[in-house]
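User: I'm preparing a small set of examples for a lab meeting where we compare how different chains pack in three dimensions. I only have the primary sequence for this one, and I'd like the structure in token form so I can line it up with the others. Please keep the answer compact; I'll paste it straight into my notes.
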Amino acid sequence: MAHVRVIEFQKRGSPHAHCIFILDQAWKNSLRNPSRVDDVISAELSPEDDDVLREVVLQHMIHNPCGSNNPAQCAWRPRTQEKLPKPFRSETQQIESEHYISYRRWSPEEGGETATKPVRGNSEQKVDNFWAVVYNPKLMRMFHCHIKVELCLSCAGGIKYLFKYICKGSDKVTMEIVEETGRYNEIEQFQDARYFLENSRV
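Assistant: Understood. Below is the structure token output for the 202-residue chain.
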């Protein structure tokens, strides 16, 4: 029904987008079915017979194991910004106390996929669904890049956070100041155009 998107520019790396898509009621109702969610969003390695998707997921959607599993990779943090690793789950469900869906992540004992991923130091690390970032298979096949997808259903706290998150940082505006005399004063233009945010840098 609607969407909001913000392009974020950082000092390192390419610009990236934060998007929110608001679905109509029919789609919302269909995504209350866990099996339907599994068709749209995955938190698992793809099977070996889907070699294209498997390669893209391994390259872009598997966080390198941390801590004792891989001391060279962010060992100083017990959990990553993605809050990985995630616990294994036999089925997708939404817990009332959480903002987002808890996605199915089969353990190797349940038949979940495992794979070998190159890590720092020219070594390899065995990974499984424990380290998967949620994604949409169709988007991964189309764009071959990191695209995290989350589903938020009728939870005010989660929706509030999403809109707050995509609007984070300082606001900016493109403007032009013209003196009536036609003279251009660069110092005055800078002073008139800047502003301060509370607890933020200029």
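A couple of notes for your slides: The longest helix spans residues 156-166. The longest strand covers residues 2-8.

User: Perfect, thanks.
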